[in-house]
Amino acid sequence: MIQRLSPRALLVLDGAGALATAAGTALLAAGLLETGLPAAHLSVLAAVALGFAAFDALALARGAAGPTALRAIAALNLAYCAATALSCAAYAPALTRWAWLYFGLEWAIVVPLALFELRVAARAGASARG
Which domain holds residue 113? Predict the structure, then answer.
């Protein structure tokens, strides 16, 4: 079933995931759990995730839920994971187990999703040309 997901369905899934990331990171910024990252830093990460959800929603609303939008959000997702990895590396001595768990789970979900989005975008682009 997952192999048959369309770019549109993946943008819906990605948008839902971005909203979940924004909510989870905002809760961490609010002090739900101690992470060792500054609250302001977590707030920026939450805002970026919210921006990704808005990108997905706009692509869907404008009827632009094709391979180009999927490639763009996949690249943004990978950049976000790289940024959070760099943040974790910079604050490593102060990070708690909760931070490593939260961001580790996020990477474990978002990186494979982004790679899958790139595969689906390539497949959809090839079928549109062929």
Answer: 2-129
